[in-house]
Amino acid sequence: MDPYAERPTGRGSVDDSDEPTGRKIVEAELLVKQQPWEAKKLNEEEMRNNFSLIPTELRPDVILRFAENKSLLLDGLLDKGGSLAEHAVVVNAHLGNGSVLLFGNNPVYRGETVGTYAMVFNAILNYQHLQNKPIPPAPPTEKQ
User: Fold this and answer.
1) How far is C-alpha 12 from the chain's CA centre?
2) Are 14 and 3 contacting, i.e. CB atoms less than 8 angstroms apart?
3) Does the pTM exceed 0.85?
4) CA separation for the pair 40, 23 (Å, rounded)
């Protein structure tokens, strides 16, 4: 067994401390797997003076997304459906006091499947439920 295999820096002998000179070893941050429909998580440096940053309360909500790649139905003109897998189909974008529904497909196109017409009718009939309601703060808990 190599005695240096357990040394992250690979420096020094077995008896020496494995800290780089002048600084402490810091564990790397765990990378969180980001799904295609999720907003990118920004760190403090990326959020500072970023003119293209959308405030959290104004970010769009994904209402419906495509299924995983292995369960997509590849039919008709769909070629290489893996690029669609887990991407948003219906997005609720907030604009002023209202909402705008964005469809990633064309649900009322003449050659579209019959099931997509229901998405449009559902949006028309339930438009009042699309408002961006602020999440109420959690009630304070009393310790006794």
Assistant:
1) 43
2) yes
3) no
4) 31
